[in-house]
Amino acid sequence: MTNLPNFGNTPLLSTIGNNYSQLHNLLVEQNWEEADRQTLRVMARAAGQPEGHLSSDSIEMVPCEDLCIINNLWLRANGLRFGFSVQSRIWESIVKSYATDNDEPAHKQYENFRDRFAVEVGWATEEKGVPLYFGSNREPQGEKLNSQNCTFIPSGYYPQRVLIYRAWGCQLINWNVLFSRMEYCLRNVSQQT
């Protein structure tokens, strides 16, 4: 088993006792799909929620240390191409590029940003607009992404289940909340070191 490159000596145990060894091992093995599932589980645990249950409110409960550990493990896993901070930068770029001064309601602008983001990271196509991701069994559609074809996975593709675990129409997490939390935590953690 190959070790991940040193990235600021990311701890695998957080101050509140969350153990990230399993996520680390899945990422070392480049088992992207299972690492994505594990990310949802550990995020829920860090937020004090039942397994797999996250909302915008519970994202705010995830300690910065835990969010940064998860992010750093993903960053290290594939040359800084995956992780919430990568997704946050993509999101901000889209928001800045497509910000409008029209009378479009905020929720409609958010939906447009969300759809553009999904296309940018490979979760959807321009033609379909909605994710290719979930079928009736909430599993990815089409080819499974694995270590053999990981170089073709777009930047920001993973982790995704935290953001789109529920059906597209009843999304529980406002992506602005997660990405704002990630940016806050990155600033907070960097000021402490």
What attributes characterize this protein structure?
193 residues; 8 helices; mainly alpha; disordered N terminus
Question: What does it look like?
Answer:
This protein has helices at 21-28, 32-46, 56-59, 64-77, 84-98, 106-120, 161-164, 175-192. It is mostly helical and 193 residues long. It has eight helices and no strands. The protein has one domain.
Could you give the topology of this structure?
Elements: H1 21-28, H2 32-46, H3 56-59, H4 64-77, H5 84-98, H6 106-120, H7 161-164, H8 175-192
Give a short summary of the structure:
The chain has 193 residues and is mainly alpha-helical.
Q: What structural category arises from helix and sheet content?
A: mainly alpha
What's the pLDDT, averaged over the residues? Answer: 78
- Separation, N- and C-terminal Cα atoms: 31 Å
Number of structurally distinct domains: 1
Largest sheet: none
Low-confidence stretches: 1-7, 132-144
* Total count of strands: 0
Q: What is the strand content? A: under 5%
Q: Would you list the SSEs in sequence order as H and E?
A: HHHHHHHH
- Helix count? 8
Helix content: 40-55%
